[in-house]
Amino acid sequence: MVHHRSEAPVVPVGPYEPPYYAAVFTTVRTQDQSGYSETDAHLEDLVKEVPGYLGMDHAQTPGGLGITVGYFRDADALTQWRTDVEHRAAQRRGRAQWYENYTLHVAKVERSTGFTRAEGPQPPTQG
């Protein structure tokens, strides 16, 4: 998984028609992050080429916990990403250098909804 922080507006990945898969990658990083940003940016570009890749959400807590959720249309897309040669090399480097610890949870999404606030002034609610 990757954790690139772009300058784009903060918007979560929208809902998709289930079923699809979510890979939840939680991390605590080490002090030695040399090469991490470059590898992260490259992997973010690379995962977008995987047929069935839907998107990614990332958050970092002030205490250092990183959470990345990658969304994939099906198990084949997730497997293609998991076994990608460059991704595997980054995983090895992550264990050797960048991560104190991490967990990966893979889940099949059975329900997906979303909400976006409308632009402009909202009428007062009656109550």
Order of helices and strands: EHEEHHE
- The level of helicity is 25-40%
Radius of gyration, whole Å: 17 Å
Instruction: Give a quick account of the main beta sheet: strands, pairing sense, barrel closure.
Output: 4 strands, antiparallel
Would you identify the regions where 5 or more consecutive residues have pLDDT less than 50? none
Share of β-strand residues: 25-35%
Give the total of beta strands: 4
Helix/strand structural class: alpha+beta
Number of helices: 3
How far is the N terminus from the C terminus?
46 Å
Mean pLDDT: 90
How do the strands line up in the largest sheet?
A: 2-3-1-4
Shape: globular
Describe this protein with a few key phrases.
single chain; 127 residues; alpha+beta; four-stranded antiparallel beta sheet; 27% helix; 29% strand
Short description:
With 127 residues, the chain is of the alpha+beta class. It is built from 3 helices and 4 strands; from the N terminus they run βαββααβ. Helix content is 27%, strand content 29%.
Note down, in words, how this protein is organized.
- The chain is an alpha+beta fold and 127 residues long.
- 27% of the residues lie in helices and 29% in strands.
- The protein contains three helices and four strands; from the N terminus they run βαββααβ.
- A four-stranded antiparallel sheet has the order 2-3-1-4.
- A hairpin with a 4-residue loop joins strand 2 and strand 3.
- The radius of gyration is 17 Å and the shape is globular.
- The protein starts with 19 loop residues before the first strand and ends in an 18-residue tail after the last strand.
- The mean pLDDT is 90.
